[in-house]
Design goal:
The protein is an alpha+beta fold and 165 residues long. The chain has a single domain, classed as Roll (Nuclear Transport Factor 2, Chain: A). 26% of the residues lie in helices and 39% in strands. The chain is built from four helices and six strands, in the order ααββαββββα. Strands 2-1-6-5-4-3 form a six-stranded mixed beta sheet. Strand 5 and strand 6 form a beta hairpin. It is globular, with a radius of gyration of 17 Å. It starts with 7 loop residues before the first helix and ends with a helix. The C terminus is likely disordered.
Length: 165
Amino acid sequence: MKKPKVSLEDRVEIEELMARYAWALDTGDFDAYVETFTEDGWIEHWPQGKCVGREGIRKMTQDLWYHKPNHYLGRQHRMSQVIMTPEGDGVRIKCFWSILQHDVETSECRVFGLGTWDTLAVKDDEDEWKFASVYVDIWRGKGVPWVGEDKAWASPPEKDARTPA
C-alpha cells in the first residue's frame, strides 16, 4: 500500500520554515525565531527541558544565547536527511541535525553537536506553516539511534536509550 506523501508545495514551505528557524536561532533574532512557532508551540531538549509558549521559548533561548559570553556566537544549525510524513492536520518532520561552530575568540571551527529532530508542523489561521512542537535529541554517550543488530555496539546500551522519540 502506498504511503501518503506531503505535497511538493508544502514540503518547500516547510523547508523554508526550517531555514528561517535556524537562521533566526543562529543570528540572535528572537522575534523571527519565535515567529516559526505556533502561539502554544513548544520545544524540548537537554538540558533546558520542555519550554511551552513564546514566553517559555524566550526564557530558554535567552539562557542559550546569553548564559556564557561568546558561547553561542558563530553557530550554524544544519538539518539533513529530512523525512516528512502527513500526520493529522500537520506534517511530522524527522531529520538529523548538526551544529557547526566558529569560535569567535580562537577562529577555530568545529562540530559542536549532533542529534535528531522530531517536529510537528501545522498551518496557522493565516495558512502559514508553524512548528507546534520541536523535540531535539542531542546525542550523548550511547543515545545514538540504532535499530540494527546489537553486534554493531562493542557494549550495547539499554534498549530504551536507543529508542527514537
